[in-house]
Amino acid sequence: MHNGECTLKAMAIPEVNTDVSQEQQPSGLSGLRSRARRAEHEQEFYLRMLQQHFRPGMVWLDAGCGHTLIPSWLRDAKRIEQGFLEAAKMIVGADIDVPSLAAPSPIRRVACRLEDLCLGNETFDLITCNMVVEHLSAPTRVFAEFFRVLRPGGVVILLTPNIFHWANVVSWATPFWFHRQVLKRLWDREPEDVFPTLYRCNTPARLRGVLEQAGFADETVHLVPGRQRLIQFGPLFYLEYFLYRIALRFPSLREILCAVAQKPLSVPKIHRPGSTETQADPRVCLSGVAPEML
Description:
- This protein is an alpha/beta fold.
- Helix content is 36%, strand content 17%.
- The chain has helices at 2-11, 28-38, 42-53, 77-87, 98-102, 139-149, 166-173, 176-187, 204-214, 235-249; strands at 59-63, 90-95, 108-111, 124-130, 150-161, 217-224, 256-262.
- A seven-stranded mixed beta sheet has the order 3-2-1-4-5-7-6, sandwiched between helices.
- α1 (2-11) packs antiparallel against α4 (77-87) and α6 (139-149) crosses α9.
- Mean pLDDT is 79; it is low at 1-23 and 274-294.
């Protein structure tokens, strides 16, 4: 494991100061835009949480996996992702979206609903769920499944929007076709990469409560400011910057929630309803995985 440890040390990225108001910046609109670009993106925060909790030799489930472990636009993304791939014992992605699963990926993937994972009890050391919770119709069932397939002492990391942030209120109040049009126009996101949002577990209290209900302990919900998106949109940017500064002062209005929770070391054996087995065999869904890896 020494090689993996060295690789992980090299993966570290510097923390980005969320409040850069005290740094020397250009004045006027250019200064505001410079501060906005330097603010920490929520995916950078998510990566820091990964690097804090990941250990070499872990078996990792990325729930709602998409195409990559981390966004490809992050600095040194390929090198960082390769470090995770080399250090982990196994990384599995689970998703119900067939086009996402059809795209090339460096990890093993399985098509299944997160509400009913076809994976064995106590199989994983780490579960991540990056910008997926807001799409779940039954988060209570999903978190119960996470708890079931996680080993005692294992960690779950969730990144999801905070419904109290102004942009997420707009998202909640507008129809799905509007989301697709706006995301295509502003950030050139293809319609097939945009999914309906339900926001059924997207307040700090609700997120913490559902994790506790599933059996998790030591839940921490970080309120992440995120980064301003409308830098090139003139008057809209001024409004967004004003709201961003308010959110920095009042954390409950921040854009993103990042929850980290642990499965207790001592928990009763879990049986799925209708099952006579304590341990299911994940190889049913993961063809080609060597038995000694499970």
